[in-house]
Structure formats: structure tokens, C-alpha cells
């Protein structure tokens, strides 16, 4: 585990006041986000049947928490990694129309997560998905949606400043757009993480596009599952987080695969066997709507807006004792 300890850390808020601020941010943001994006709140599962192919495979190496239940002998259930595919299926099953969408509270366990100040095995985010036309599967649609989300986040900053002026962490005024290939061309000798740090220090807030496919060097900037985001029309929302002098990823999102992108990416990932799973069969048959969607970290947003040094200050999870001891010594109040 990599643990960053800031010098002379001041949490600004007590644990009780932090808890009140967390509740305020979560409740206010989801209402404003849903309203501005035209999304309806829906209930979502914490586990899915393995055989449906609905779970998120992330980078393909992380193993989901799995178990069996008495009422379904022989069926393997998995705690979700995310709801990337479930949401698209839900829009289809529930009869959502063009430009309608949903958001939901997504709670997951990623037991293989590498822990640090931003990462926990417990993942809580607002997952969202919206129906678009095939013609709207463009970079212009992606950028317009990112700007809309950034506007809601900036408005949330103003709301938090009004209630907790002593604690709010101020964000950049503008979001900048770059591609992973642009970063490799500019800094060919740097690692992907180093490139992200350099561009975020320069711009403050960045939407880094086109993640998952091979760059000109033959390397990938980062891994992405092949069966939800279109790797040419996706990206991560990144901030330069001054309290830790580090990049913070707040959101991963994108325009989802169509039939051609699904086939292309399954082949690139050597995962063509997934084409026979129920979700994939529906998509390849052209029965699922074209969509754009993503996730916004709930604890990450609270951490970002309140200037916290560790995600454990805004969510209750499990940490190694060495982490707890180091945080306590530095005045970092782990819940």
C-alpha cells in the first residue's frame, strides 16, 4: 500500500461535522445531478449471477467476491465491481425512451484493489446511463456531457462553501480535454501515471480521452474492459489534488460500445468467448439501446470538496493496522 501523509495536516472539520457534510454533499449532489442530466433514480443490485455476464471485469485480473445461496443451488453469485453493463440492460428492460436515463447508488467490493489515499476495497459511486442515438455516438456528445457534469460539480463546490467555508477545497474554473495519444506524443519517456500528473499539474482539471486501446508505442495507457466503453469515445475525469500533490480520478465514463466496437474490442482483448453471454448476445443482435454512461465516486467527491487527506475520512472501510497507526499519528481521522 502507498500512503501519502501531508505535512501539518489540518482536517478542518471534526468527525461529527465531517459526517454532516458527507450527508449534505451526497444528498444535494445526487438531486442536482439527476435533475441537470435528466436522469431518474433507480434501485440496483449489489450482486449478480455470474452466468449473466453483467459484472464488470475491470482490467481482467481482479477477482470478484463470489458465493452461492441456498435457494439457487449450482448458481455462482458475484458482488458487483460496477454496474456498467447492468445499467444498459435496465434501460432496455424498463422501457426507457431516447434521451432518458437513470442513476443509482452503486456499492461494490473490489477485494484486489491496491489501497492508497484514494482507493479502498469498498467502492461507492453514482452509476448513471442515458440513451442516445447512433448518430450521437461522437466526441462532441462526450465532451458536451463532460462539461455538463463539471458544471454540476462546480455548483456543488459553491454549495459546500456556503455551509462549510473553512473546509471547502476550491476547484479549477475550466475542464480541459486531451487524449492519451497526445500525452504519449508529448512525454514518450514517461509512464502513463507520470503523464497524467504532468498534464493535471498544468491544467488543474482534465478529461483524458481514449483509454483502453493500444497507443502508437504498442502500449496501453490503462486497461479497460472490452464490453462496455468504446475505447475511442471514453475517458477519465481527473483533478490535480493539491492537498496530496497527486492526481485524483473522480469519474470514468464514455459512450458505450455498439455492435462493431464490441466485436473489435472482444477480439483485441482475446475475450471473444463472452459473445455468447446473454448481455453480449442482446447487444450484438442490435437489441440494446445506444448509451452514454459512467460513474462518479461518492466518497471521492466528498474527499475532493472537503480537502481530505484520505478516503477513509469520508467512508467506513477496512484498513491495515499500519495505515491506521500512521494516519492517527498524522491527525487523519479514519472512520
Automatic annotation (TrEMBL):
Pathway(s) where this gene product acts: Amino-acid biosynthesis; L-asparagine biosynthesis; L-asparagine from L-aspartate (ammonia route): step 1/1
Enzyme Commission code(s) on record: 6.3.1.1
Localization annotation: Cytoplasm
Enzyme class name: ligase
Keywords: Amino-acid biosynthesis, Asparagine biosynthesis, ATP-binding, Cytoplasm, Ligase, Nucleotide-binding
Domain Aminoacyl-transfer RNA synthetases class-II family profile positions: 23-320
Gene Ontology MF terms in the entry: aspartate-ammonia ligase activity
Major localization class: cytoplasm
InterPro entries named among the record's database cross-references: aa-tRNA-synth_II (IPR006195), aa-tRNA-synth_II/BPL/LPL (IPR045864), AsnA (IPR004618)
UniProt keyword Ligase present: yes
Entry-linked Pfam families: AsnA
Domain of life of the source: Bacteria
Transmembrane helix in keyword set: no
Family per record: Belongs to the class-II aminoacyl-tRNA synthetase family. AsnA subfamily.
Name of this chain's protein: Aspartate--ammonia ligase
Organism: Lacticaseibacillus suilingensis
Gene assigned in the entry: asnA
Amino acid at each position: 500500500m502507498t500512503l501519502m501523509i501531508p505535512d501539518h495536516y489540518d482536517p478542518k472539520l471534526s468527525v461529527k461535522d465531517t459526517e454532516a457534510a458527507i450527508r449534505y454533499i451526497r444528498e444535494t449532489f445526487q438531486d442536482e445531478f439527476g435533475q441537470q442530466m435528466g436522469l431518474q433514480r433507480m434501485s440496483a443490485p449489489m450482486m449478480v449471477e455470474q452466468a449473466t455476464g453483467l459484472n464488470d471485469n475491470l482490467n481482467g485480473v481482479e477477482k470478484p467476491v463470489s458465493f452461492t445461496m441456498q435457494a439457487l443451488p449450482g448458481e455462482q453469485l458475484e458482488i458487483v465491481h460496477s454496474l456498467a453493463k447492468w445499467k444498459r440492460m435496465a434501460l432496455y428492460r424498463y422501457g426507457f425512451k431516447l434521451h432518458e436515463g437513470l442513476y443509482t447508488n452503486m456499492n461494490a467490493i473490489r477485494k484486489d484493489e491496491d489501497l492508497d489515499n484514494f482507493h479502498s476495497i469498498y467502492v461507492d459511486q453514482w452509476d448513471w446511463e442515458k440513451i442516445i442515438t447512433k448518430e450521437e455516438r461522437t466526441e462532441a456528445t462526450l465532451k458536451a456531457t463532460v462539461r455538463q457534469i463539471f458544471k454540476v460539480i462546480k455548483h456543488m463546490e459553491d454549495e459546500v462553501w456556503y455551509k462549510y467555508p473553512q473546509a471547502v477545497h476550491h476547484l479549477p474554473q475550466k475542464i480541459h480535454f486531451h487524449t492519451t495519444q497526445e500525452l504519449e506524443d508529448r512525454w514518450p519517456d514517461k509512464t502513463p501515471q507520470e503523464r497524467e500528473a504532468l498534464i493535471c499539474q498544468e491544467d488543474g482539471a482534465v478529461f483524458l480521452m481514449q483509454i483502453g486501446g493500444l497507443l502508437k508505442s504498442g502500449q496501453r495507457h490503462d486497461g479497460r474492459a472490452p464490453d462496455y466503453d468504446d475505447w475511442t469515445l471514453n475517458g477519465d475525469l481527473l483533478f490535480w489534488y493539491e492537498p496530496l500533490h497527486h492526481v485524483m480520478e473522480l469519474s470514468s465514463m464514455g459512450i458505450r460500445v455498439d455492435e462493431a466496437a464490441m466485436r473489435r474490442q472482444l477480439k483485441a482483448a482475446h475475450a471473444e468467448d463472452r459473445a455468447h453471454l446473454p448481455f453480449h448476445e442482446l447487444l450484438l443482435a442490435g437489441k440494446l439501446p445506444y448509451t452514454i454512461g459512467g460513474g462518479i465516486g461518492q466518497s471521492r467527491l466528498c474527499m475532493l470538496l472537503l480537502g481530505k487527506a484520505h478516503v477513509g475520512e469520508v467512508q467506513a472501510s477496512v484498513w491495515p493496522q499500519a495505515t491506521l497507526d500512521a494516519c492517527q499519528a498524522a491527525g487523519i481521522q479514519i472512520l
